[in-house]
Amino acid sequence: MIPIELYIGLAAVIFSIGLYGFMTQRNGVRMLMCVELMLNSANINLVAFSSYHGNLTGQVFTLYVIALAAAEAVVGFAILMSIFRMKDMIDLDKINILRW
Amino acid sequence: MLNKQFTIMQIITSVYRYFKPRILGIIVALLFLAILIASVIGTSWPTVDQLPQNLEDQSNIVGIGLLIFTQFVVPFELLSIVLLSAMVGAIYIAKGEAGK
User: Fold this and answer.
1) Are B75 and A57 in contact (CB under 8 A)?
2) pTM for this entry
3) Do B40 and A67 touch (CB under 8 A)?
4) Which of B50, B64, B85 to mutate to test the interface with A (most CBs of A within 10 A)?
5) CATH number of this structure's domain A4-87, picked from the four choices 3.50.50.60, 1.10.150.240, 1.10.287.3510, 1.10.1040.10
6) pLDDT in tens for each of the 100 residues of chain A?
7) Which residues are registered as beta bridge partners of A91?
8) Do A5 and B26 count as a contact with CB atoms less than 8 A apart?
9) Shortest CA distance from B54: residue in chain A
10) What is this model's ipTM?
11) Do B29 and A67 lie within an 8 Å CB cutoff?
């Protein structure tokens, strides 16, 4: 049986990769991809703990998280498409139309 | 043989040019990863040594399906509404001027 530290370590590595990409990249599509990486590392944690406790609630919750991540990605890419149509770029440093 | 000869100095220069504007993000991500890994290793997980209760039956599709349609049926229905509204909103945002 694989020890649970390896699963949590994998999730931590994936989360750190997503965090690094989210902090350094300014392209909107790349930032959304990094957000997806962070969400999926949280899913790995949920499934690992659910499997090690013998309780299926975490895996059901992971299905809901995946569906909500799909909804979030859809809305994010739609906003990016609308911004690209307006300004012909998705460099998020130069876009302040969503600012209050 | 490639026409363009890459020397070690050019490789080092290109790596330096890639990582120079991103050094702060790398440092922060590596510190975060170190904190996570240290806390994972330093924690004594109580479930590591225990085997899961249904080791001989690794398939849990039936259990997940039963849980979705019995205990978690209300979030399942809410999730359908969320996905539908996200889809309608994304189509409305991304439709643009061509849909008029």
Assistant:
1) no
2) 0.81
3) no
4) B64
5) 1.10.287.3510
6) 778 888 999 999 999 999 999 999 888 899 999 999 999 999 999 999 888 887 888 999 999 999 999 999 999 999 898 888 888 888 888 888 877 7
7) A27
8) no
9) A54
10) 0.78
11) no
